[in-house]
Write a structure and sequence with these properties.
The chain is mostly helical. The protein has 15 helices and no strands. The chain is globular, with a radius of gyration of 20 Å.
Length: about 325
């Protein structure tokens, strides 16, 4: 694990703790506890975007060797648990590729994850732009948008760069650079395998119909995720419109993605939700309660996801 990742992770944890301490911890925890049975519905709702995202990912495999929807959803669930609880960026994407590697052509699982990640980032940008448009209709306090604008620009730049690198042969290029600078890489990293992975990625991009379908399902997944935000505020006795929920969800997640150096966006997403809640007229406490509820959901779903991933991995043939 890199030192910078550990430092960023520690800084994120300290940032989250600071947000809680400076906003009356007892009142915040009482608000989360007041959700009671609503917490079950809020946590259960997350199954909906997981299955929608699983359908989007499933379409990227060549028929008829696609993984079953249940297997794809399980892999995404495990990946979210790994990404949310381990301070290693994108380790969950490696985990989900391994969990479905028995489906599709050799290398297709890894290639599909790369393309799915690219589509996810691209659709998140569209989702964020939708959030900006909706937020401007529900709030006169648009200063928060100037704060979050760099996040959108960074997401757009990363998505474009990631796509162009894939077209240029990202993995073979990375392999050649690693071979030039590392003896260990020359012994353990196979350039031919990297070139095959690049070819598999380009092959998926040539399936235009599947790509369009996957993109639309990906966008639907982002929209469905806003249901969690709507449920939290409804349970708190602060019902908001679904447009407002999309605005808060999209911009909060954009802040998390832009701060990719911080594992799980710790502190960053939470601070953004605090500001968005205040700007939407709900008060900073409401935004922070939403952030803590999301963290609780990640913990409740993440721990069994890690256990499930370990069990599945040990039972799969090598």
């Amino acid at each position: 694990m890199r030192t910078t990742t550990v430092i960023a992770w520690a800084a994120g944890i300290c940032g989250l703790i600071a947000l809680i301490l400076f906003n009356d911890p007892s009142r915040l925890l009482d608000s989360v506890a007041a959700l009671r049975w609503w917490l079950i519905a809020i946590i259960a709702w997350h199954v909906v975007p997981i299955f929608i995202d699983a359908r989007a990912w499933q379409l990227l495999f060549a028929a008829p060797a696609r993984p079953p929807l249940r297997a794809a959803a399980t892999a995404i669930w495990v990946a979210e648990g790994v990404n949310g609880l381990f301070p290693v960026p994108h380790l969950g994407e490696i985990a989900r590729a391994r969990l479905v590697r028995r489906f599709g052509a050799p290398g297709e699982a890894g290639a599909s994850v790369v393309v799915d990640l690219t589509l996810g980032i691209s659709m998140e940008l569209i989702f964020a732009l939708l959030g900006v448009a909706l937020f401007s209709t529900v709030s006169n306090k648009l200063g928060i948008l100037r704060v979050l604008a760099p996040a959108g620009a960074l997401i757009a730049a990363c998505a474009l760069a990631f796509f162009l690198l894939q077209r240029a042969g990202l993995f073979a290029l990375a392999g050649r650079i690693a071979h030039r600078w590392s003896e260990t890489a020359r012994r353990s990293f196979n350039i031919e395998s990297a070139e095959a992975l690049d070819a598999a990625v380009r092959g998926i991009y040539r399936r235009r119909r599947a790509l369009i379908g996957s993109t639309l399902w990906r966008l639907a997944g982002w929209v469905a995720g806003a249901g969690e935000t709507w449920l939290v505020f409804y349970a708190l006795g602060m019902p908001i419109g679904f447009g407002e929920a999309i605005a808060i969800e999209s911009l909060g997640h954009a802040a998390r993605t832009a701060a990719f150096i911080v594992p799980g966006g710790l502190g960053v997403q939470d601070g953004a939700l605090l500001l968005l809640g205040a700007a939407a007229g709900l008060g900073p406490d409401a935004g922070l309660v939403l952030a803590l509820t999301k963290r609780l959901r990640e913990l409740v779903l993440g721990i069994p996801a890690l256990v499930a991933g370990y069990v599945i991995e040990t039972r799969q043939p090598r």
